[in-house]
Amino acid sequence: MGFPLLSFIIFTPVAGAAVLMFLRGDDSARWTALSFTVLDLALCIAMLVGFDTTTHAMQFTETRPWVPALGINYALGIDGISALFVFLTALLGSICVLASWVAIDRKVKEFMICLLSMQALMLGVFCALDLFLFYVFWEAMLIPMYLIIGVWGGEGRVYAAIKFFLYTLAGSLLFLIGVIVLYFYGGRTFDILALTEQDLPFRIQSWLFFAFLIAFAVKVPMVPVHTWLPDAHVQAPTAGSIILAGVLLKMGAYGFLRFSLPMLPEASMYYSTLMLALSVLAIVYGGLLALAQDDLKKLVAYSSISHMGFVTLGIFALNLRGLEGGILQMFNHGVTTGALFLFVGLIYERTHTRSIADYGGLMKVAPVYTTFLALFTLSSMALPGTNSFVGELLVLSGGFAANLVAGSAAVFGALLGAAYLLGMYGKVALGPASVGARLAIRDVNAREMAAILPLAVFVLWVGLYPKPFLNIIDASVKHLLTHVQSRGSGP
Hints:
This protein has helices spanning 5-20, 26-49, 80-103, 108-127, 131-140, 142-152, 157-185, 192-196, 202-219, 228-235, 238-263, 265-270, 272-291, 296-316, 320-351, 362-365, 367-380, 387-402, 404-429, 446-464, 467-487; strands at residues 59-67, 72-78. The chain is mainly α. The chain has a two-stranded antiparallel ribbon. A hairpin with a 4-residue loop joins strand 1 and strand 2. It starts with a helix and ends with a helix.
């Protein structure tokens, strides 16, 4: 009690970035970044060990005055909805450093500083209990991500970075306007917990709902504001794609859970059918786009649009199974899709091509690589026994309970996922050896296995024994659902 654990979790990567500024040599930069991300991960494990799963209340809270004249505080805390994502961010931070060990060979120190800064800001988003503080973290994380894509990306990196920045900035400006409106209509406070207790008029709730919808939809991303995502993923370095898919996309869905549902319950219920329709559109359209790709990285990128559609479907089903499935699927998507982008990066380092047609017969030359790729491919298509199956089953169950048409369309989207994922794996790993497979391709090494194994563990752990993960989110989800249902039945 009294130990500022969340501040230590947020500022440990900042301390690492500060240390890096005074170091020379690429190897020292890599080892220092890895040390600080592993330390941060250890702090997050300690946080989960001490987390009380029986209460929905915020835990490990910290509050200090920041700008007293405006009622702005440095306020931190986590509940069951945010705890898993704090841990996921720290886990993927360490994996990103390992994935960049060889792939980033210029301006290594600067890259690691950007990566650590990005991790700190994302952790701040999940921990902030002050709306102004949340916005500072939310907006500031655009800068290191812009640099990661724009400096260390591929040939079209500048275009992709600018497109990413403009899309997300446009959404953030609407979010800022919503924050200001909430401040004046919500009792002139930025306290997130206090704002959830305000009973705003439906007219104000509707206006805020659509302002937040655009801001969060860009981050998710939802169709039709999704077009920045494939460019950003294709041009970003491997670590950038991992952190983008694994954590950054979760910010939008987290915004719905932290702001739209609890603060705007009447509007959330009123417009839930619209959100279910947009979610189904993303599931099916993203699946069709993925099915048409011949670029391995684009295929995984478009699959993210489809998979995040399942997340928003579960959230706006507005029932217990849907909400718990949506939150668990956010965690699962971070693990599985982060791993798939890691595998795309590993094979690109060896072949310098992402064209699926250039692969074939990799099972013969890289059996360990293709075995783990099979595991994550099966996870992405939600095979029973893997993590995504649990989340997708809950989402579909909640979706059918909320809207039969939406649930049926989501099943079709799941079938599309099986089609493009199995087709991709068959072309890459099986069949006759192609030009790419005849190259001198080595199998994964010890460093790469260190990045792969933790993700593989969570694929099987959540798939075979999801109870500890559902226990973390259960109390908070039940409280949120009760709040929405009790406040959302307006005239």
